[in-house]
Predict the 3D structure of the following.
Amino acid sequence: DVKVTQSSRYLVKRTGEKVFLECVQDMDHENMFWYRQDPGLGLRLIYFSYDVKMKEKGDIPEGYSVSREKKERFSLILESASTNQTSMYLCASREAGVGQYTQPQHFGDGTRLSIL
Amino acid sequence: DAKTTQPTSMDCAEGRAANLPCNHSTISGNEYVYWYRQIHSQGPQYIIHGLKNNETNEMASLIITEDRKSSTLILPHATLRDTAVYYCIVRVYNQGGKLIFGQGTELSVKP
């Protein structure tokens, strides 16, 4: 089974702090994603990565950056945390596969981040 | 992007089959349908996906109508642990094939 592990289930930080969210997958997947999930807004894509050292902006990249130095690890960075970044953050990975994006994404259990 | 419509909530008796419908009338010919579920405070769990043929795996069956405008997820013997929000998704092609979750169906399995 695919295992996507997020470093923390719950995290509390203060405004202005630099926050690191870590995600590791054990299936040698090429593609990785960071989403945030908010009530009434569904899932929104922050950044994704096709492969090591590659990254693309999603729908809401402002205030975030990412790092993918190794294939199994995809980090989300909040440069200067603000209260509107309080949310559930979800990491996902996907095998690149033969068909265009046809393989399913597999998610971690999420990090519930509170910015005070 | 093809949109999906699902009932807001459904109940199912434990041990019975749960049939969750989804309408995706604007789906294009090469777009896949995916089903995920999310149990409270956990990440979404992949269940199954298909293009036009019916699919079955150890978790569920997916029935897609011939015109592909709707589908049904079937949990053959629902248990209390199947209580969750179920999302029907038609995958987009841009932005790495990102997933767009709608409101989903809240399935309650009752003893």
User: Anything to note?
Assistant: The two ends of chain A are 36 Å apart (CA to CA).
